[in-house]
Design brief:
About 0% of the residues lie in helices and about 55% in strands. The chain contains no helices and eleven strands. By secondary structure, the chain is mainly beta.
Length: about 120
């Protein structure tokens, strides 16, 4: 079983940067794929970025060129570097770990990002 704990959220001005961290604990965590999602009240959770166990990366069109996802398997940590933040990036950000072979999925509790002047 995996446990995921997000951190790094906060209040930032438009144009600013934040780096979110997802600390992963549990065995064989480096065989999992990871993804960052975000959600605002009344809306469905949307995929922001994903990184597979083979380092294949995808981004949503809304963050492409501004956000960078990465993982450090030695530290069991997944990152989301967010640059040139916009007010519409305001959301609760969640980290997900998933394994296609076993079909298991784990979520963190989320970290709030607020972009406002």
């Amino acid at each position: 079983q995996l446990q995921l704990v997000e951190s790094g959220g906060g209040l930032v001005q438009p144009g600013g940067s934040l780096r979110l961290t997802c600390a992963v604990s549990g065995f064989i965590s480096d065989t999992y794929h990871y993804a960052w999602y975000r959600q605002t009240p009344g809306k469905e959770r949307e995929l922001v970025a994903s990184i597979t166990s083979n380092m294949a990366i995808k981004y949503s069109d809304s963050v492409k060129g501004r956000f960078t996802v990465s993982r450090d398997n030695r530290k069991s940590t997944v990152y989301l570097q967010m640059n040139r933040l916009k007010p519409e990036d305001t959301a609760m950000y969640f980290c997900k770990g998933y394994n296609d072979f076993s079909g298991t999925t784990y979520w963190g509790q989320g970290t709030q990002v607020t972009v406002a002047s």
